[in-house]
User: What shape does this take?
Amino acid sequence: MTGKIPATLDVAGLRKQFSVGRPAIDGVSFAVPPGEIVVLLGPSGCGKTTTLRCVAGLEYPTEGTISIAGRIVSSPAQGILVPPRLRDLGMVFQSYAVWPHMTVRQNVVYPLKHRKTGRAEALRKVDEVLALVGLSEYAERPVVALSGGQMQRVALARSIVYRPQLLLLDEPLSNLDAKLRLRLRDDLRRILKQTGMTALYVTHDQAEAVVIGDRIGVMRDGKLLQMGSPDEIYNRPADLFVANFTGATNELTGTLVERNGAFGVVDLGNGQRAEAALIHALGPGEKVRIALRPENIAIGKHDGSNSFHARILDRRYQGTQTIYDIDLFGRRLEVLELGTAARHEVGVDAPVSLPRTICWAYRDEGPLTNQ
Ligand SMILES: Nc1ncnc2c1ncn2[C@@H]1O[C@H](COP(=O)(O)OP(=O)(O)OP(=O)(O)O)[C@@H](O)[C@H]1O
Ligand SMILES: [Mg+2]
Assistant: This one.
């Protein structure tokens, strides 16, 4: 698709205080470079939708600056607040938001009519965007005769047909059943990449964030905890909350006894020691929590640092993978092994390895609450 140059989105020091409660957004700053998809990921109530609505101009920020393509659209300090219709952006919501009494084509052409696009050009643009979302054969069908996934494609087509400089998507897949959601999330990324549009995408689903985002920003309680590539978020979570929220369900506590550059030796009690990657700047004597993903622990082999013995306590075969509970120094850890065979017997002692690069050590600030 040809069209306008995608915009940069800049959000700096954004704060939103509603009339009640603590701030819904509390000093959030990030940028979305042209053509990039940034996903805001976080649990319910962390401020994702409010951030998106501030960018759209549907919510008035309390503080901070929002710029689209270098133009300030919102800045309370400077008395600037550009209305939504003058921000040149498209929005896709959780609910399908299509016109039920119209056909697919009528729905998609609607924003162009509104913008007084010529008939021939409008036809061409609609055909192009329907092909992009895979609905060419459905053009003349009333939208009520479509599946949920197809309706959401119509909503998407309608938001991108006029090529806004920025696209905002708020949990667009969450009304679909699980199977459809998986299929559409792959399609959605492909479609967005083909348009080359700058997009800000909101979800509470970490698997969706990883598939769709070029970068992911993890939010909690109105704050942006980490912004990074999916790989960084997964393989070097900035804090314990990010590690937990993206699936590191195991934790070991101990005391740092020695530092060796980016790694350290942690005393886990009873004379047991393990090496860990120091994510926080920690010093000897500090209490630490080590987060570990079940899929990063290997049973059945000794491999480099942190090779131990553990007892298999339980196993849950799930067809394409098996979950084991193991006892390591009296602590129960979960291990996930891919493959259709459950290879380890309950009750046996087995070698396990926890490579130090996948043992992330954080300052111990007490157990996490409000997850
Ligand atoms: N109009 C409002 N008045 C007062 N508080 C609000 C208002 N809208 C949102 N909030 C509060 O702001 C916080 C952030 O809400 P927001 O809708 O941005 O969360 P979210 O991350 O999108 O959550 P979800 O995943 O459930 O959609 C919540 O604590 C919410 O209760
Ligand atoms: Mg929301």
